[in-house]
Write a structure and sequence with these properties.
The complex is a heterodimer of chains A (187) and B (313). In chain A, 75% of the residues lie in helices and 0% in strands. Chain A has 187 residues and is mostly helical. Classes of the chains: A mainly alpha (187), B mainly alpha (313).
Chain lengths: 187, 313
């Protein structure tokens, strides 16, 4: 008869261990997801000089756009702290967006295979940054949910698990629709 | 899964109750042997099946193709490689190996027992007919097969189908030779094998032997179809763009010719049935039962619902 309470306690202990391990694993994945965003942002920094050099020859009239991109990149590389970095990376994204849109206006540039390949690389890099952020938000949501559902919420806080913040836009400018001025005709 | 296990146990228990008798005791020898044999043969396909399938279809690594391709082609191949990278990041899995199958019919498949051991292959026809967004939808679907461990699921299912077929074979053979269940008329303390319950169980067992292989195959196809719907939904979760996969499926269905390069063994891994079987095109009771993929129209409708572009259902 005494077997039943013992089995019950054993089952609860096993469940608690499995729950704790799952929370630890998810927390580590969340941290990994956060760092993966940095990996993609660094990759973008390294790729930009190549793109600017490839288009500089044909896009003489767009010197402002090109300089804006290089300046934004330099600022983003020298950012201090995550909030500052988020803001500077957002400005770099906007500058790149303008460059890609303006390049569409140059027929010789559009037919150049090298440039097409570089544009593809740049689009892919922007996509990768976006997907890295999406993955971070997905895994952070999983982690928060795992901590807050019924049996786990009884002990999650006492073992040191805290809900994490999701990635979000801090600058209102990033939410606005980007404006691109294509009125300047190529020479 | 539970229906499978129940089937297996009915066959095995019947075998043991009626032929092994008292000596067998409580150990279900028949079931254990069947499961061991099934497990052994499926382990081989689980660990080495992916390489076998890739060899059979003539797939080439995208890196090798890029090195020797003409300029225009290289952009398409680079897009494919980038799309796979993006989906691997979105899914949080290691990047799978990417292959291209030289077949003009659009199709794609994923193999490998899990993330880290996976390969994704697309046909030439798929690369040529889809744009970047649709390609991303298809790759997301395949990546979801990897992430949801569908190869593992279908291997286990295939092993169970095999075991069920084996057992039913043995049982029907045993019945021909053994001449039916042994009844002990003068044994009072044996419950099973005599009385109404025994006869009922025997009848059930006969029915099970006859129908077992057919029903097992139908159950396997049911599992395969549900996993396809799951991969569609998981792929939409990765891209956050269900319509891209819906458009890709429409284009793939329009092409409709069988994919000759992909054989019967890999059929269940593909995004569209490569054998061009009539079962997957028609709807209706029997087609629904034995088709490995759901009807394309139903898949597209489900995706449109996810994108809030369809009101009914």
């Amino acid at each position: 008869m005494i077997l039943i309470p013992i089995l019950l306690i054993a089952a609860i202990v096993v469940w608690a261990i499995a729950s704790y391990n799952k929370l630890v694993g998810t927390r580590n994945q969340v941290q990994n997801g956060w760092r993966q965003i940095d990996v993609q942002l660094k990759r973008r920094h390294d790729l930009i000089p190549n793109l600017v050099n490839a288009v500089k020859g044909s896009m003489d009239f767009e010197r402002d756009t090109l300089t804006a991109v290089m300046e934004a990149r330099a600022k983003a590389q020298g950012a201090t702290g995550p909030a500052d970095a988020a803001q500077k990376e957002g400005q770099l994204t906007q500058a790149l967006g303008r460059l890609i849109a303006v390049a569409e206006n140059y027929p010789t540039l559009k037919s150049n295979d090298n440039v097409k390949m570089l544009q593809e690389e740049l689009s892919a890099t922007e996509n990768k940054v976006g997907f890295a952020r999406q993955f971070y938000n997905d895994i952070a949501t999983n982690f928060n949910t795992a901590q807050q559902v019924f049996p786990a919420n009884l002990f999650a806080a006492s073992f040191g698990f805290k809900p994490v913040e999701l990635f979000q836009i801090t600058e209102e400018a990033d939410r606005a629709v980007p404006t691109v001025d294509l009125s300047r005709k190529p020479g | 899964m539970t229906a499978f296990v129940a089937f297996l146990l009915v066959l095995g228990l019947g075998f043991d109750t009626f032929f092994i008798g008292v000596a067998g005791g409580y150990v279900p020898v028949g079931t254990i042997v069947a499961l061991l044999v099934g497990a052994g043969s499926s382990l081989a396909s689980y660990y080495h099946g992916d390489r076998a399938v890739l060899l059979a279809t003539g797939a080439q690594r995208v890196e090798d193709l890029e090195a020797s391709a003409p300029e225009a082609d290289r952009l398409k191949l680079r897009q494919l490689a980038n799309v796979v990278d993006e989906m691997a990041i979105a899914a949080g899995v290691p990047r799978p190996a990417v292959y291209v199958v030289p077949d003009p019919d659009p199709n794609a498949f994923a193999t490998g027992r899990g993330p880290g051991y996976a390969s994704i292959a697309v046909t030439r026809g798929l690369l040529d007919s889809l744009d970047r967004e649709e390609l991303q939808g298809v790759v997301a679907h395949e990546m979801s097969h990897v992430r949801n461990l569908d190869v593992r699921v279908m291997t286990v299912v295939a092993a169970m189908v095999g075991a069920v077929a084996l057992l039913s074979d043995w049982a029907s053979r045993g019945m021909m030779w053994g001449g039916g269940p042994r009844r002990r008329d003068d044994d009072d303390d044996r419950e099973g094998g005599s009385g109404l319950a025994g006869i009922l169980f025997f009848v059930l067992w006969i029915v099970a032997i006859v129908l077992a292989p057919i029903l097992a195959q139908a159950l396997a196809m049911m599992v395969s179809r549900q996993r396809e719907y799951l991969a569609d939904a998981s792929g939409a979760e990765l891209t956050r763009n269900p319509m891209s996969l819906a458009h890709a499926l429409e284009k793939i269905e329009a092409a409709d010719a069988p994919t000759r390069a992909i054989g019967r063994g890999a059929a269940h891994l593909c995004i569209a049935d490569p054998l061009g079987r009539q079962m997957n095109v028609k709807e209706g009771f029997w087609a629904d039962l034995f088709a490995s993929h759901p009807p394309m129209a139903a898949r597209i409708a489900a995706l449109q619902q996810m994108a809030f572009q369809r009101r009914d259902l």
